[in-house]
Amino acid sequence: NVFGFKALRALRLEDLRIPPAYSKTFIGPPHGIQVERDKLNKYGRPLLGCTIKPKLGLSAKNYGRAVYECLRGGLDFTKDDENVNSQPFMRWRDRFLFVAEALFKAQAETGEIKGHYLNATAGTCEEMMKRAVFARELGAPIVMHDYLTGGFTANTSLAYYCRDNGLLLHIHRAMHAVIDRQRNHGMHFRVLAKALRMSGGDHVHAGTVVGKLEGEREVTLGFVDLLRDDYIEKDRARGVYFTQDWVSMPGVIPVASGGIHVWHMPALTEIFGDDAVLQFGGGTLGHPWGNAPGAVANRVALEACVQARNE
């Protein structure tokens, strides 16, 4: 309420400390980093994703084809754009069906577990849950939610469902810049990130440092640690103003997404380490030879960077 006081011209919340006694009243992420790796059987490297483009206008069948090509080329995940919901040119149920077919075909041909972030965000909690249930019935491993536009109550309800039914939960942060972009008013994203970790989500978008979206390196790494680690020491240089103890709450995997491509791979693997999803949209689909070669290029670049690091 204090943000609306007319005595204040502007107000900015940079950080807050959440006492362990309070954080333990939340379930946190439905599964967490280690359980996700066990589910996917993928270890020792970052995960690769791709946001399907164009974000609007594809039919469900063509959308499913793009998903298949990317996953067949070597990516671990593909993603609904936050704007993709249930429009006249592609209703959500049709999209879910074609995407499920693409998932199973790619899995059969590669021998790897694949996923697609099926956007369950909807106008009501009931509709959101209906979409999540349908995704689970199709055998999809992961669903997606816009936690700021959907709201924290809806997000926590979905997190409970995902935990009980073995679904991973990918969180998109659409609308965050309305709240955190201005440096003299609003709140910093690290506050929203802490709130999200308590509300529940296995992935959350966290900026890229090197891409098209704003984000300073040290500050970004500060809230990435707040998402992943159990205990984070105060470090003002990295924007961590309070020591935070999450006790045993599972960690959230940060997603680097927005204007990145294969040339950024060495920097991204060095900045984010293994526990991250590196998500290339146009950086995959913009390949001159097509979607599948774009996915192959990203996978080869990632494995080359990981091998060079390990040697």
Q: Tell the overall outline.
A: globular
**CATH homolog superfamily:** Ribulose bisphosphate carboxylase, large subunit, C-terminal domain
* Percent range of helical residues: 40-55%
CATH fold-type name: TIM Barrel
Highest-level CATH class: Alpha Beta
Radius of gyration over all CA atoms, rounded:
19 Å
Q: Low-confidence spans: pLDDT under 50, at least 5 residues?
A: none
EC number: 4.1.1.39
Catalytic activity: D-ribulose 1,5-bisphosphate + O2 = 2-phosphoglycolate + (2R)-3-phosphoglycerate + 2 H(+); 2 (2R)-3-phosphoglycerate + 2 H(+) = D-ribulose 1,5-bisphosphate + CO2 + H2O
Subcellular location: Plastid, Chloroplast
Domain Ribulose bisphosphate carboxylase large subunit C-terminal: 32-309
Can you summarize this structure?
With 311 residues, the protein is of the alpha/beta class. The chain has helices at 20-23, 33-40, 60-72, 92-110, 125-138, 147-150, 152-165, 176-180, 189-199, 217-228, 265-272, 282-285, 291-310, and strands at residues 12-13, 47-49, 77-79, 115-119, 142-146, 168-172, 186-187, 203-205, 231-232, 244-245, 253-257, 277-279. Helix 3 (60-72) runs parallel beside helix 13 (291-310) and helix 9 (189-199) runs parallel beside helix 10 (217-228).
